[in-house]
Amino acid sequence: MSPPALLDIGQLQRVANFLGIGGNPKSQPTVRVGMLGASQVATYAMIWPARRVPQAEVVAVAARDGNRARDYAKEHGIPRSYGSYEALLADPDIDAVYVGLPNGLHGQWTRAALKAGKHVLCEKPFTANAEEAREVQDLARSRGLVCREAFHYREHPLMEHLRALLGSPALGVSSGSPGCQEASGGVLGRLRSVDVAVLIPKWVFGGTNIRFQESLAGGAAMDAGCYCLHAIRSLVGGQPVVESAAAVMAAKSQVVDAAMSGTLQWLEGSNTGLRASFRASLQHDGPLPVSTIDVRGERGHLHCSNFIMPVFGNVVRLTTTAAASETSNAKGSGNAVSTSVNRVYGSGESTYYYQLSRFVRDVCRVKDASKDGDEGYARKSVVFLWSITGAITV
Question: 279 pLDDT exceeds 90?
Fold first, then answer.
């Protein structure tokens, strides 16, 4: 089946929604958000969706350069700007903080925001190492504050659709959670393999971007690979171990990876025998970003394209097989093959809209972070991400 037309009315509306065009009236109570970092990613991850989420309002931005913060605030219609992160955290009128800083600064400023009594939405990866993740988890729990890791795609209806098909556990599951096929009878039956790829073309970041700086916890594994691992664990559950990993180093670097691939396996629980692989790259040769999920089970194959940015077009192709004896109209022997193709857009909003909507709902409920397990899940993700380093070959 051909991809959706780029200029159909529905797609135009989805793009407009992504850009924050046609914002919705604000309702009370409003969660007042301050942004740490006058960054490009904050534009589409926070500013644009906040225009469409009724209970969210961006009220301040901080940068290390006061002039940059002021210019950024003026450009985006943000009421207040600060020339230091500390000054923004001291603002009593701010309820929550969006941490959109480089990877290596996530843990430091998430802790600072929590200590200032602010709820936090922190860009992935949650922290730069496992120790930081534990500290943040404990701090959020002790203060009764919401602190979420910004894997924006997970709240989109597309992921709900995949979880429904696979019968996989909800986010935040413990390492002892049942496998998806035994939890709720997924359409693929017992799973055999899960393969995820997130490939960013080299023209997007070039070779001098901060994502390639060791001091800022850069590299493909931390930037794109965390999406792969998060998707695998979100859909399957359990706690796999790293079987192998291979890195392609960035130019003129012996420590920062431009690409990372690896294989995982489950050694215990109902997923025993399941294997997974991932590919992550910040230097992909293709012209467009790629984000795909392929799941194979005893009853067929599921392929999902563009799971990270589904608002710009996505495809879910499901091919299932069943023994003729299992079909009501079976005649003779053999297998019946069924293929379906769907596109999942929900209400047509972006992944960032759904993410922010979930975050402000939790904040408005003053939900204790310990109740939804998000920090524990994020900590395990960071620990697992760092376990890859022990299996790397270059």
Answer: yes
pLDDT tens digits for range 11-31: 999 999 999 998 888 888 799
CATH for 9-151 is 3.40.50.720
Q: How far apart are CA 196 and CA 277, in angstroms?
A: 6
Q: Which CATH fold would you assign to the domain 157-345? A: Dihydrodipicolinate Reductase; domain 2 (3.30.360)
Pull the structure tokens for residue 308.
């990270």
- Write out the DSSP string of 85-123: HHHHHT-TT--EEEE-S-GGGHHHHHHHHHHTT-EEEEE
Q: Active-site residue among 26, 74, 115, 124?
A: 124
Exposure pattern of 45-77 as b/e (b: 16+ CB <10 Å)? Answer: bbbbbbbbbebbbbbbbbbeeeeebbebbeebe
Token pair for 372 = 């939804």
Task: Give the helix/strand (H/E) hosting 382.
Answer: helix 374-387
Q: Tokens 């060791």 map to which residue?
A: 214
**Residue predicted with more confidence, 176 or 204:** 204
Q: Where are the domains of the chain?
A: 9-151, 157-345
The rounded distance, in Å, linking the Cα atoms of 152 and 349 is 12
Tell me how far CA of residue 120 lies from CA of 60, 74, 83, 144, in angstroms: 14, 24, 20, 12
User: If you average pLDDT over every residue of the chain, what do you get?
Assistant: 84
- DSSP letters spanning 235-254: HH-S--EEEEEEEEEPTT-S
Burial 318-337 (b: 16+ CB within 10 A, else e): bbbbeeeeeeeeeeeeeeee
Q: Detail the DSSP E strand segments found in the chain.
A: 31-36, 56-62, 80-82, 96-99, 119-123, 147-150, 191-201, 241-249, 257-265, 275-284, 290-297, 300-305, 315-323, 335-342, 392-393
d(CA 75, CA 78): 8
Which token pair is 313?
A: 């077009």
Whether 115 sits among the annotated catalytic residues: the reply is: no
Q: How far is 317 from 294, CA to CA, in rounded Å?
A: 10
The Cα 53–Cα 357 span in angstroms is 6
- Work out the number of other CB atoms within 10 angstroms of the CB of residue 275: 17
322-331 pLDDT, tens digit per residue, is 754 454 454 4
And the tokens for 39? Answer: 């960054």
